[in-house]
Design a protein that fits this description.
Blueprint: H1 3-7, H2 29-36, E1 42-46, E2 49-52, H3 53-65, H4 72-95, H5 102-108, H6 113-116, H7 130-143, H8 145-172, H9 179-190, E3 191-201, H10 202-208, H11 215-224, E4 230-231, E5 234-242, H12 248-264, E6 266-267, E7 272-273, H13 281-288, E8 298-299, H14 305-313, E9 319-325, E10 329-340, E11 343-351, H15 368-384, H16 399-402, E12 407-411, H17 419-427, E13 433-438, E14 441-451, E15 455-465, H18 470-487, H19 492-501, E16 505-507, E17 512-513, H20 527-535, E18 544-548, E19 554-563, E20 566-567, H21 574-596, H22 602-609, E21 613-618, E22 624-625, E23 628-629, H23 631-639, E24 649-650, E25 654-665, H24 673-699, E26 702-704, H25 706-716
Antiparallel strand pairs: 1-2, 1-26, 3-21, 3-25, 4-20, 5-16, 5-17, 5-19, 6-7, 8-15, 9-10, 10-15, 11-12, 11-14, 13-14, 18-19, 22-23, 24-25
Helix pairs in contact: 3-4, 3-8, 4-8, 7-8, 9-24, 11-21
Membrane topology: Single-pass type II membrane protein
GO molecular function: peptidyl-prolyl cis-trans isomerase activity
Family: Belongs to the PpiD chaperone family.
């Protein structure tokens, strides 16, 4: 890590992406290999190419850099899907005979979102600072092998994105549009069909002709749309949550406890102290608070809303509270300091010596005394003529800041500089030049500018969590235990009925995936364990289990059905597709009746079903009919011969028959051919790219071993 990274956290180029260490999510792979006879480092295969644990870890690392705040289990599944897509694209990239050379990588890196959106990587003319980026990476490589390893993982992700851009650019270059297509679209935009029609509405027809959608009906629909309903393995789980929420008595107990600490006090070793009168606020908070003491001066904008008004007028030592936060904590806040957070713009040159933390590569020959002598000499020259500062950057051991002219940017008292460095910035005026000794060496510091900042408040917070008492948790446990005994051996319908009858929290994820991480509607720290249990080969349909969360909640789970990879179980998607299937069945009945009566006119059709004939204008780009979008009907209006009765049309909201009386042409200019061609090419390229990626996934031979390996790991543990 560059030396400046030890002095303060700087948001420049790579440092923000290199802070988080890799996470390993399977234990002791060597021992697992011996026990189970299968390499646990191979998590899957795509078209014969292995996916390793290391690759998945690397992809997970990249996602975690984005700081999405999502649980690790959720990010793992996203990482898997991204890795699968990346592998498929790389395979196609290689089949095309393309090659990602080192030269191409560095030429394309400026277009990657990680760098293209960072203005600090471009100069005033918009040129990408490629050489500075390379120097920063070389500095990291020399000073921190661990962070250089992190960069290599980031680089792999960038390589995948470059390959994707190049692959789709080559493929979509053949996706075109021509003037004839554009002219036809413009023509269709200006055409309107004048029609008479009769609609037999599904809803109205069903009142007298009810239909029941069977499981087989759903299955037939799914078979007609296999790609739409292709699914990975899932489980239908019933879950009942018994939450250990604090009672009113528990809340009163927490309030009494914090009031006692606030006003009456406890024995702190040297007698009774309260938060109100203690002379050592940080120690009192450390010993008695649920949250640690924060020594930082924070502006009003970063303080809790409840105390902002208090801080505006409070004197040092005054307290406020108790007050409730998030219905989970009681706070008492004491103001123990105020300071104006002046901002300082500075630059520095670091003269290191042999053995200092800045000499991580061990290449420095200069002694400490020689370093001081050189720093004093340079400092004297710069003090006499600040313009010469840049002439001595070549001596700086902090290559990262040296590449930026020694600039440290604007910093505040909260910037984590070492104390000596921070003190110099605080106590010296704009324009000052001085030499400061720190553990890293000797810094020649130039304060370029200063400006006043907002007032910062140092607040000591005494915090007590409102927790459920033992009595409360025992009551919840008894309730959960009674329920699981009651549902043993019962059907799923009985399980859900008992839960609902007692007004328990009940959820039923019908297609829970093994690696989705969280279960919507529950969201406890045991969701991942519930999923692991549901996918365990030893867990049978009808089994129940109870799980205890870290905060004392109890979750009772029931495994209703298992869905293996393939076409989805019809009943699991009934709520989604039943309305569509019901309309299909109604349409079949309506059309059968029309054909049986040999309908030859709209008037006959209207009389047959007790509806009315209507008239309307429709277009290919204007498919609104009878209050709904009906593209099939609009298309038929232009396909039927004039004044000829159409066949029955199965629409979205009913069955239609129509007669097209005439087609009118609107002569208003709807756009020019050239702009339509450009729009078509963009749309076609985007749609083709998305469809191609879906097709690659659908046609790929993907073997996912994670469930098997993770289950074995769980049994091993």
């Amino acid at each position: 890590m560059a030396v400046l990274g030890e002095i303060r956290k700087r948001p420049w180029i790579l440092i923000g992406f290199l802070a988080i260490a890799l996470l390993a999510f399977l234990v002791n792979p060597d021992s697992l290999d011996k026990v189970f006879g299968k390499d646990p480092n191979i998590l899957g295969v795509i078209n014969g190419e292995k996916i390793t644990r290391e690759e998945l870890d690397s992809q997970l690392f990249l996602l975690q850099q984005q700081g999405q705040g999502q649980p690790k289990e959720v990010l793992e599944e996203q990482a898997w899907k991204m890795l699968v897509q990346s592998k498929l694209i790389e395979q196609q990239f290689n089949k095309l005979g393309l090659e990602l050379s080192d030269e191409m990588f560095w030429n394309q890196i400026q277009y990657d979102p990680m760098f293209a959106q960072n203005p600090q990587l471009f100069d005033a003319k918009g040129n990408f600072k490629l050489q500075e980026l390379k120097r920063e990476i070389e500095s990291i490589k020399a000073q921190s092998p661990e962070q250089y390893s992190n960069w290599l993982q980031i680089k792999r992700g960038i390589q995948y994105r470059i390959m994707a851009r190049q692959f789709f650019a080559n493929i979509t270059s053949g996706v075109t549009a021509n003037n004839k297509e554009a002219a036809e679209i413009l023509k269709q935009q200006q055409q309107q069909a004048n029609i008479d029609y009769v609609k037999v509405d599904y809803t109205g027809f069903q009142r007298a002709n009810p239909v029941k959608v069977t499981t087989q009906d759903l299955a037939n629909y799914i078979k007609q749309h296999p790609l739409q309903f292709k699914t990975e393995a899932s489980r239908n789980i019933g879950m009942v949550a018994f939450l250990a929420k604090p009672s009113a008595q528990d809340e009163s107990a927490a309030l009494a406890e914090i009031n006692k600490l606030y006003t009456q006090g406890i024995d702190m070793g040297d007698g009774i102290e309260s938060f109100q009168n203690t002379k050592n606020d940080s120690m009192f908070v450390k010993v008695n608070s649920e949250y640690p003491f924060n020594p930082q001066y924070l502006p009003l904008s970063q303080q809790p809303d409840q105390i902002k008004g208090f801080l505006n007028t409070a004197g040092i030592g005054q307290s406020f509270g108790p007050y409730k936060v998030e219905d989970r904590y009681f706070f008492v806040s004491k103001l123990i300091g105020k300071q104006r957070g002046d901002s300082v713009k500075s630059r520095h040159i670091l003269i290191a010596f042999k053995g200092s933390p800045a000499d991580q590569a061990g290449a420095e020959k200069r002694t400490k005394e020689e370093a001081k002598k050189l720093a004093d000499s340079i400092g004297g020259i710069i003090k006499a003529n600040p313009a010469k500062f840049v002439d001595f950057l070549k001596f700086s051991a902090d290559s990262g800041s040296a590449a930026q002219g020694g600039e440290l940017g604007w910093t505040t008292p909260e910037t984590p500089f070492v104390p000596e460095f921070k003190a110099y910035l605080e106590h010296n005026p704009k324009g000052a030049v001085g030499v400061v000794a720190t553990q890293f060496g000797y810094h020649i510091i130039n304060i370029e500018d200063k400006k006043p900042g907002p007032i910062g408040y140092k607040v000591a917070n005494l915090v007590k969590e409102i927790k459920p008492s033992e009595k409360t948790t025992n009551t919840v446990y008894t309730q959960a235990n009674k329920f699981i005994q009651e549902v043993q051996g019962k059907s799923f319908n009985e399980f859900s009925s008992i839960a609902k009858k007692n007004n328990y929290i009940f959820v039923n994820p019908k297609m829970a995936k093994r690696f989705q991480g969280q279960i919507q509607g529950i969201n406890t720290d045991k969701d991942a364990e519930v999923l692991a249990w549901a996918f365990d080969k030893k867990t049978k349909i009808g089994d129940t289990n109870i799980f205890t969360s870290s905060n004392g909640d109890y979750i009772v789970a029931y495994l209703k059905t298992k869905q293996e990879a393939g076409l989805v179980d019809p009943e699991s998607v009934r709520s989604e597709i039943e309305p569509l299937v019901k309309n299909q069945l109604l349409a079949q009945k309506i059309i059968s009746k029309i054909n049986a009566q040999k309908v030859t006119s709209l008037d006959q059709l209207a009389k047959l079903f007790g509806v009315v004939k209507e008239s309307q204008q429709v277009g290919i780009f204007n498919t609104m009919i009878s209050g709904g979008m009906e593209p099939k009907v609009a298309g038929a209006a232009f396909g039927v011969k004039p004044n000829q009765l159409s066949r029955p049309i199965e629409g979205r909201t009913g069955v239609y028959m129509l007669v097209t009386k005439s087609i009118s042409q609107n002569n208003k200019q709807g756009g020019d051919v050239k702009s339509v061609v450009q729009t078509l090419m963009q749309q076609n390229a985007q749609q083709y790219s998305q469809a191609l990626l879906r097709s690659l996934e659908d046609q790929a031979n993907i073997k996912d071993y994670r469930i098997e390996i993770y289950n074995k790991t769980a049994h091993r543990n």
